[in-house]
Each structure stands twice: as structure tokens, then as C-alpha cells.
């Protein structure tokens, strides 16, 4: 529950707490979605919360341990930014295994670059990119376009590259805007 509630005489449910206070309470009480949302606020400085990597990490970690895929992805990204690629890959993999498209793109990138994984594995990278692209995730479509443009692990195919680039661009991916 996102805070204490009261039922006035008209039967309406009214929160007695400010939304941020209710979110903090729910997060402290173990609600994974609230932990994730609080992590986002600390990560990005939302709602007058000062940006704090330590707090963001703590809340993402709690939600990630509870199995929340989007928290696992964000935790992976925090590890990635600190160049701890092994931990980043571990958390991206957990989220990708749950079908999180951004994590499928991210673990694919780790395999493409050989970061935090045993070795460069373009076939595995491509497989993850294809899973995310099938969910219309533009970042994966862009990476597939690059594989086909440069013939990296696949036969060079400029038509296919353009197809993937256009799909990504049509979703607003600024990396492929001409």
C-alpha cells in the first residue's frame, strides 16, 4: 500500500501522506516496484530528490534481488558505468531472461564487445538483438543494422541494414537520424 488511508463519510479513499512519503514507506516495506521507482528518483534527480548514486544503487539492488527485471537492468547499467562489466552482464542477463527488451539489447552488446562475458560472441549478440527488435526496441534494431552494414558476424547486407536503421529511426532513435 502506498501510504495510510482514511475513508471520509462520503466513502472516498484519501491518502494521508504525500506521494513521495508514501513511496518511501512502501519501498522500505519491501515493495519492489516502489524500490525501483525510488531508485529512479535518486538516479535522475526527480521530485526534488538530489541525485545520489549510492541511494539509487541501494534501491535498484533491493528491487533487482526481488526479481524486478527493469531494476535488474538499471542496476546493470550502474555497474556498466563503473566499468564493472562482469556484474553488469550478470544483471542484464537476469533481466533479459525475463524478456526485458532493453536488457536483451544490453546483454547483446556485452556479447558483441566481449565485456563481462567469456568472449566476443556475435551470434549470441545477434540473437539477443533479434529478440529485442521483435519487440520493436529501436536500440536493438540499430545494433542489427550495424551488424549487417559492416558484415559483423553476418553476411554484409546493406538492404537489411537500411531496413533496421529505418525501423529504429521511425521510432525516433536519434543515432540513426540523417
From TrEMBL:
InterPro entries: Sel1-like (IPR006597), Sel1_AlgK (IPR050767), TPR-like_helical_dom_sf (IPR011990), TPR_rpt (IPR019734). The keyword Lipid biosynthesis does not apply. Keywords: TPR repeat. Pfam families: Sel1. SUPFAM superfamilies: HCP-like. The keyword Manganese does not apply. Belongs to the sel-1 family. This is HCP-like protein.
Amino acid at each position: 500500500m502506498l501510504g495510510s488511508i482514511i475513508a471520509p463519510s462520503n466513502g472516498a479513499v484519501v491518502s494521508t501522506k504525500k506521494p513521495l512519503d508514501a513511496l518511501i514507506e512502501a519501498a522500505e516495506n519491501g515493495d519492489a516496484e516502489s524500490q525501483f521507482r525510488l531508485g529512479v528518483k535518486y538516479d535522475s534527480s526527480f521530485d526534488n530528490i538530489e541525485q545520489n548514486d549510492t541511494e539509487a544503487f541501494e534501491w535498484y539492488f533491493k528491487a533487482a534481488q526481488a526479481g524486478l527485471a527493469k531494476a535488474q537492468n538499471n542496476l546493470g547499467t550502474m555497474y556498466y558505468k563503473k566499468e564493472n562489466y562482469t556484474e553488469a552482464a550478470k544483471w542484464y542477463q537476469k533481466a533479459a531472461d525475463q524478456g526485458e527488451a532493453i536488457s536483451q539489447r544490453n546483454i547483446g552488446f556485452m556479447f558483441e564487445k566481449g565485456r563481462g562475458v567469456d568472449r566476443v560472441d556475435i551470434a549470441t549478440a545477434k540473437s539477443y538483438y533479434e529478440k529485442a527488435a521483435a519487440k520493436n526496441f529501436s536500440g536493438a534494431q540499430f545494433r542489427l543494422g550495424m551488424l549487417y552494414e559492416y558484415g559483423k558476424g553476418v553476411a554484409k547486407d546493406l538492404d537489411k541494414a537500411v531496413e533496421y536503421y529505418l525501423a529504429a529511426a521511425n521510432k525516433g532513435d536519434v543515432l540513426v537520424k540523417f
